[in-house]
Amino acid sequence: MKPTTGKPSTPPEQWWKTSIIDVQPGEIGIRGYPIETLIGNLSYAQMVWLMLRGEVPSKPLATLLEAALVAAVDHGPQAPSIAIARMSMTCGVDINNAMASAINVLGDVHGGAGQQCMDLFRSVLECASAEQCGVAHASDIVVGDHQRNVSKMIPGYGHRFHPVDPRATRLLALVEQARCEGLLTGQYLAAARAIEATLARRANKAIPINIDGATAVIYSELGFSATLGRGLFILSRSVGILAHAYEQSQAQERIKGPMPPSVPYTYTGPARRNVPSSTVRYENDQY
Q: What is the mean pLDDT of the chain?
């Protein structure tokens, strides 16, 4: 007989616990709100906030969240996640497989800059508090530490394609407007601007904030954690992934690789060679 520990077993109904949803026959409650009272009354951005934070946000704050979600939906088929979605569809998989393949590459390198930037903003503010200095000096400390110990590149700044990211310009204008209206503290916006100034001084040229940095400002100002910041980016970019995957499925093309056949890859291995005679297996003087 198996010995008992004396501890009571977990009741089956207690195995999974959630404060998000309660589903009973004929009833669905989201954070305590009957679903039928939310349908038609909440925007999608408000629903996202409710699911993640537990409360319904005001319309102005939901509008700012929605702006960030809209801004990051797509950046063209040259983006790895979008390209993967399109290539997947040409392999004959279903759209959910294509979307999953694309989302799975949104990690630290492609898709993680927003989360990293949110962490950087928080480090600047914590440094300013600990050192009892302004965000400008704290930014210099944090950026210097990052460039020495992590990477010369600062997440959320600069862009390989856009000299000035038009998405970031618009988003930060909305943040500034919300700050002037007293909806936000503006502390993360100040940290973002301080880092931008620090980078310009260190590089002796402008390195403007990009879409990742701008959405990081918004998500931070709205009180989302850095982890949720990455999740919100993935939620936003999933719209672009879906659109590209579906468009590609309508083209009826098969097995398209990353480059057209006219653009060959580069082989870097050994030149053509023979198998060493000492390794060849002979049977009855034949191969």
A: 94
Rounded Cα–Cα distance for residues 68 and 190 (Å): 18
| pLDDT tens digits, one per residue of 88-147 | 999 999 999 999 999 999 999 999 999 999 999 999 999 999 999 999 999 999 999 999
Tell me the residue range of the domain where 33 lies: 19-56
Residue 283 bridge partners (DSSP): 286
Tokens of 51: 């699911």
Q: What is this structure's pTM?
A: 0.91
Same domain membership, residue 43 and residue 174: no
210 with 124, same domain: the answer is yes
User: Which residues on neighbouring strands pair with residue 24, listed in sequence order?
Assistant: 27
CA 147, CA 157: separation in Å to the nearest integer? 13
Q: How far apart are CA 210 and CA 240, in angstroms?
A: 18
Amino acid in position 220: S
